[in-house]
Amino acid sequence: MLTETEVVASSVDQGMPNQALRAVVAVPVFNEAERIAYCLHALDGQEGLGGSGLGVLLFLNNCTDGTAHVVAALQTSLRRPVRVIERAYAEANAGWARREAMEAAAAWLEESGTQDGVILTTDADSRVPEDWVARNLAAITDGVDAVAGRIALDEADAARLPASLHARGALEGAYEALLTELEARINPVVHDPWPRHWTTSGATLAVRLGTYRQVGGMPPLAVGEDKAFVSSLLSSDARVRHDPDIVVVTSGRLDGRAPGGAADTMKLRCQVPESPCDPRLEPLPRALFRFAWRRRIIDLHASGRLGRKALWAPWLGIRTDTARTIAHLPTLGAVLAATEAASPMLRYRPLRPAELPRQILHARAVLGLLRSTSAVLGRSRRSKVVAVEDASQTSAERTGHA
């Protein structure tokens, strides 16, 4: 929303503004004169798009370091159409900037007359691979509504980080991968099968234009706008794919542009090594309890029995009136989110780094059992199929000889 403190400084199109577009990449930018060229060249070099038109929308907010001059100098050499918007806004924050960028990208797609457009977003301090857009579009073409990729730290930045931070990151990554596979096996999702991941980062998101409008767009939160956005997608039953093969390189600096963002998190972990892990990295028994109850709620919802509150609400410490409200929510995603929010049994209790090795050991043991069970069941199913095929063939042969 415009206020008296906000001034629209400029809006410039480069290339062919009336070109039919399939996708637009929205990039919020704040004082990135040193890195914006890498970001722009990576976006300009996207391959494998066939006839799909691609536009780039740069939203420069409160830039005072010459970022606009760097962009202006690059524009004439870029092959993709680029739209640049500059604004000064005293109350700007990371979520507001990403929302404004994505709203402008959505408007550009609508202006182009695109019916099945896709909005992508990344960060100005990130470099996407040359097939980033193509991979996201392929996933959406395959039937999902949104795609979340993974991130990797820039090698030069990562080399400057302390070894203790890398060691902690390796433990957290190992445990996260184990929990992700456990959930995928306990509660499989057709459109988001294993292998998948848990990452939710504004450095690599893609969403159908219609889906973006349906959920009300990116929330203008100072911190965690990307996670809140994906949560809104899931609550609306949008099909979100967490694709492990889409990886974007992003900054590993400790002097971040967004207060409370990834840079501040890394800085805190350097200063306080035993600071809590991400809330989703909870003790294994609680995680397994959560996954099992998600499966239970999904089954009750699918069978139309969620209204029988005694089957689930008391076991999760949820009051009857609250359970009644939850049971009448319009989507399964909303039901799952409200159930977790209402249940004291499902509150997250994050681990401390020192607890990770033991939890990893236990998770590996449980996952080994699940994998073995799946393998046995798979062999049993294959044996039954072979037996049926053999019986059918024998019957056909007898009929032929008769």
Can you tell me about this structure?
Helix 8 packs across helix 12 (332-342). Helix content is 46%, strand content 15%. The protein has a nine-stranded mixed β-sheet with strand order 1-4-3-2-5-8-7-9-6, sandwiched between helices. It has three domains: 7-271, Spore Coat Polysaccharide Biosynthesis Protein SpsA, Chain A; 284-346, no CATH class; 353-401. Strand 3, helix 2 and strand 4 (82-88) form a beta-alpha-beta unit. With 402 residues, the chain is of the alpha/beta class. The protein has 13 helices and nine strands. The chain has helices at 36-44, 67-75, 94-111, 132-141, 155-159, 163-186, 209-214, 225-235, 262-271, 284-302, 320-327, 332-342, 356-401; strands at residues 7-14, 23-29, 54-61, 82-88, 118-121, 126-127, 146-153, 205-208, 240-250.
